[in-house]
Each structure stands twice: as structure tokens, then as C-alpha cells.
């Protein structure tokens, strides 16, 4: 049998394994619900990017881990060891990165509405680059940098107008977007002009991000071509040559067998060829290239384990397996109708002949994890249910709805395992109540 990712298999006992470890044993040791992360897989995914970047792009080019995908200190220690840069989108993320001892010069601060307090906090923390979204923010960054007598490095977020043909809710590169400055309307050129006139701003280049869960053949190539033309145009108009181009994140991962397998090494090589060719045609030097992978670094390094409760068979309708977690630890079905591959880890040797909906424990009928999941008809209370590819946008999107504590994050590392984030307690939940 083929499992959804290489790090998933089944052992001689007939139990599901993840990162080489028996999942039923792990569930017993740490309790459920629990997020598991395969440390080797995270490092492997980082190296796909860092090695390809070294091979394909000019010196100084860097893949940046988009921490919003899954953000906690140990993750940033791994990113530091793997020579990645990072994207941060809030002061909470900046605090996490900095307190993990990460080199802040390699941090890029995103967001479409940085407050004055955010800007001060980020400068205090020594964030290397601001990715400036709009003219008001540019003025605020200039004012704060001037007050400190320093120069702040920035990129400008540009909207290239590329539709990556992905889901509407995660599609940000089109002209009509709350993010960035569209080229098509002339607003991009306006903000470049404004940035170049600021005495305490060092404009290092441009950023774009076209969307998420991208599988499309040439999405990054098209975005790069539009952005390089923009760079050449800004050089003609203002005599300004951008030193770097950040192409954003977004390569897709495999949640179900219907999703393709992307070869990211080949993808990056192809993007690099297109960049070189376009730069040659435009007669501009190849800029330093940045990309911001989040999902493709951590998604397939994650798995969530739950314990099954009731198994409700409604004759003529659906069957439901309820689990001891739900939209509080994984809101992606509720938000995007996202699909997942799930297994009954306790019964891998039995035929999975009963389609079920996996439902959470929240008081909310939209609290579903996955639909149409085949499990053995003997599935019962106490079985361990594994949901695959949950390393991205699960823990980072978790909530305390219904005052449910967040699960711990357990790292699997060879034959070892350790807790990277502790299980939240009921006292943690009331700790801010007066
Ligand atoms: C969300 C986001 C990313 C990461 O996207 P993935 O799909 O997780 O790779 C990178 N850059 C920006 C600006 C983003 O908003």
C-alpha cells in the first residue's frame, strides 16, 4: 500500500508508523490529541530549498521559512541550524523568533497593517527587513527610523496581478487584494518613487506573493517575469536597480492522493532558468532571489493523533466518528473545506470499508476534520485516528474555543521524541482571567 507521504508506513504489529515510530505507542506515551512533527522531514524540506538556492541563484539569495505555517521556538532553532531566513507577520512571531535566539538580520517583517507599536517593536528587536505594504506604512517606518537616526532596509510589496488558479481565500496576487501595490493601476510605481525619496529607508527590492497551495505549471515563472519587467521599468524611470526580488511562498503539498507530487528542486531550477533568460532579455543583472515557503517546509512533517469516541451510524445517511479534538486544533475544514488523508492507526490490517465523517468535539456542527474517510467497520471508541499532513496551519491556527486546551507538539527524531510545545492546561486557559 502507498501512504500519503514517505515518512508514513506500517510495522510488523500492523500499527501505523510515522517518522519510523509506532503511532499507537506515541499516543499512549503523550496522550491525545497530540501534534507530531518529524524533525528529519523538516530538515530535509529545508535542504531542498537551501541546496537548490545555492545551486541556482546568485550569492545572498535565501529561502525564508514563513513561520505563520507553524510557529514555536524549537522550529526557529531548527531554521537557524538549517541556514534559513524567516518571515514574521506579528510581534508575537517576532518575540518567538527572537527568544529562540534566531539571528534577526535574516527576519523579514510582513503584514498589511503594521501599527506604530509594531514598527517600534520590530525595530527594537532588530528585524532585518520590513516588507512595506502601503504608503501610510512607508511614512510610519521612515518616521520611526528617522527618530532613531538609523536607516531601515525594506522591500516593497507589489501586486503583479497573477491569478494562480487556487482557492479564492488563499489567493493574494490578483489586483483586487488587501495586500500590496498593484502594478496595473500605477500604485506600485508611485510607492517606489515615494520610497526612493525617504532619507531613512534603504529600498532593497520588491516582494510579491501570488497565493498558496500552488501546483500550477508556471505560476512563479509568470510572477517572476512580471516582477523583473517591473524592476527594469523602475530602472528606466528612476535609475533604481533593485538588488533583490522576493517571490513569496506557496508551493503546494499533497494532502490526499488526488494532489500531485511536486518536485520542488526541479521547480526551482525551472524558475531560475526563466529568471536568467528574462534578465538577459531585459539586460538587467539577476537579482538576489528570496522565496518564502511555509507549508512545503512543515506540512508533511506533521501528523495529528486523536482518540475515537462515538461511532454513529445513521442508516441511509452518513456515519460519524467523533474524536477528542476538532476545529480548535485544526480549523482548516471549517475555513476552507480542506481535505485530509486519515487512518485508523489501530486497525491498519483490516479493510477500510466504511466511509465516515470525522467530527470534532466542539458545539458547532461545522466542526468537521474530514469527510468520506474509509475506516474499518469495526472502528470503535478508543481507536487512534491519525490525520496526516497537519504540520502547517494547524497548531498555528489553533484556538481555545469551548475553552479546549491546545494539544502539545511532540518532535520525533530518529528513535527519540521530545516535547517542543507543552500541552495547555486548564489553568493556562484561566490564567488571564481576573
Ligand atoms: C502565507 C504566506 C507565505 C507562506 O505560504 P505557504 O503557502 O505556506 O508556502 C509566504 N509569504 C507570504 C507573504 C504569505 O502571506
Describe the structure in your own words.
The protein is α/β, with parallel strands linked by helices. It has two domains: 8-38 and 300-430, Beta Barrel (Lyase, Ornithine Decarboxylase, Chain A, domain 1), CATH 2.40.37; 110-293, Alanine racemase (TIM Barrel, Alpha-Beta Barrel). It is built from twelve helices and 21 strands. Strands 4, 14, 15, 16, 17, 18, 19, 20 and 21 form a nine-stranded mixed beta sheet that branches. An eight-stranded parallel beta barrel has the order 5-6-7-8-9-11-12-13, surrounded by six helices. Helix 2 runs parallel beside helix 9, helix 5 crosses helix 6 and helix 8 runs parallel beside helix 9. The radius of gyration is 23 Å and the shape is globular. The termini are far apart. The protein binds pyridoxal-5'-phosphate.
Short description:
This protein is of the alpha/beta class and 434 residues long.
Topology (elements, then pairings):
Layout: E1 8-10, E2 16-18, E3 21-22, H1 23-30, E4 34-38, H2 39-56, E5 62-66, H3 73-81, E6 85-88, H4 91-99, E7 107-109, H5 116-125, E8 129-132, H6 135-148, E9 152-159, E10 181-182, H7 187-196, E11 201-207, H8 219-238, E12 244-246, H9 264-282, E13 288-291, H10 295-298, E14 302-313, E15 319-323, H11 332-336, E16 342-344, E17 354-359, E18 368-375, E19 384-388, E20 409-413, E21 416-421, H12 426-430
Pyridoxal-5'-phosphate (PLP) binds next to helix 10.
